[in-house]
Write a structure and sequence with these properties.
Helix content is about 70%, strand content about 0%. The protein has helices at about 5-20, 35-60, 65-75, 85-104. The protein is globular, with a radius of gyration of 16 Å.
C-alpha cells in the first residue's frame, strides 16, 4: 500500500501530538497487568491530556483548514497510548447517559 497525502499528514499530526502529550508512567506494562488504581490514574491523565490538546487545537483553528482540523482532532483520540483509556471514558459516558435516560 502506497501512503497517500492524507495518511501521511494524519501520521504527522499524531506524531506532533504525541511529542506534546504527557508520558503515561506505566505504558510499558500490558493493560491486563495494570492495577485498578493505575488504570484510574492513567485514565485521568489521558482525559487531562486530551483536554489540553483540544484547547491548543481550538486556539489554532483559524490557521488550519477544515480537513486538517478534523485530522488533528481525530488524531488526538487515536494515539496509541490513549486508545484504551478513551474507550473506558466512552463506556462510562454511555452508562451515565443510559441511567439518565431511563430515570427521565
Amino acid at each position: 500500500m502506497v501512503p497517500t497525502l492524507a495518511t501521511s499528514s494524519l501520521v504527522d499530526a499524531a506524531s506532533d501530538l504525541k511529542k506534546k502529550t504527557l508520558e503515561l508512567p506505566v505504558t510499558k506494562k500490558e493493560f491486563s497487568k495494570l492495577t485498578v488504581g493505575q488504570v484510574y490514574n492513567n485514565t485521568i491523565k489521558t482525559v487531562v491530556s486530551i483536554t489540553n490538546d483540544f484547547s491548543e487545537l481550538v486556539s489554532e483553528k483559524d490557521m488550519l483548514s477544515n480537513t486538517e482540523f478534523r485530522r488533528k482532532l481525530l488524531g488526538m483520540f487515536l494515539l496509541e497510548d490513549r486508545r484504551m483509556y478513551v474507550g473506558i471514558v466512552l463506556i462510562l459516558l454511555s452508562f451515565i447517559l443510559y441511567f439518565i435516560d431511563t430515570s427521565a
